[in-house]
Amino acid sequence: MSQALPPSSKAQLPGNGWDRLGEALAAARARGERGRLFFRDDDVADDEPLLCRLLDLFAADETPLNLEIIPGQLTLAGRRRLRDRWEEAPALFDLHQHGWVHQNHEPSGRKCEFGPARSFEEQLADLREGRDRLRDQFGSAFVPVFTPPWNRYSHATIPALIELGFEAFSALRRPDASGTWPSCASEEGGLRSLPATLDLIEWGERRRLRPVPELLASLSAQLAEQGRAGPDAPPVGILLHHAVMDETAFDFLARLLRLLRESGSVEVLRFSTLLTAPCG
């Protein structure tokens, strides 16, 4: 898993982007529109201070959070922390499977645990072991949704997930050339796709929060497109990585959660809730 960054100085969050997002949310509420959105946090395995901080933030704001657990790295302390939080607030926290051990198997190119270098049988075995471990550890608290490490997978991954009875998967997807964002269309066999559409982190050597104006502009555009598409439009998906979040990232997230809650025009959802809704 990624290492935490040292805390930075107090975040300087520009006002204009926040003002525009707030105005857009207020206008949507006036029109009777209500957007749908989810937060997904990857690389959950141990009882880490930054994970606890994230859980505390979402619990205090009473906002649902989807937690993506690495089965092969899950520690006893991590399991206890997650189990305790879920028992305290089962309506806030969803527990899902994030790969098996978060290990790269590609001999070259971009990292991938379930990539083209691995056969269907190899992927099936790892997916089954991870699923069974999370079932044993969490029982009914585990929701059969799969998120691939590094948001990458191959043609063999989806059939393997279907064979094992997974209900959905979530990978990071970006808009196409026309600016259209991905839908939650079902894959072969009825497996639901719930794509994350906005990664808060700018990946590279520094691993830091992406520029705030860029994040706010993207979120505003996605919510606007969702509003134009109507009530059955797919949700906006915001991707988090607690292990690389510094003070700037936590300040941004806290302000965003507060704005979304106070606007009254966005519903934040768990995957388990989305699985019961129509697919846009």
Keywords:
alpha/beta, 16% strand, two-stranded antiparallel ribbon, 11 strands, 280 residues
Structure description:
With 280 residues, the protein is of the alpha/beta class. 38% of the residues lie in helices and 16% in strands. The chain contains eight helices and eleven strands. Strands 1, 2, 3, 4, 5, 6, 7, 10 and 11 form a nine-stranded parallel beta sheet that branches. β8 (201-202) and β9 (208-209) form a beta hairpin. α1 packs parallel to α6 and α4 crosses α5 (157-163). The longest helix is centred in the middle third of the chain and has 19 residues, at 120-138. It starts with 14 loop residues before the first helix and ends in a 6-residue tail after the last helix. Residues 1-14 have low confidence and may be disordered.
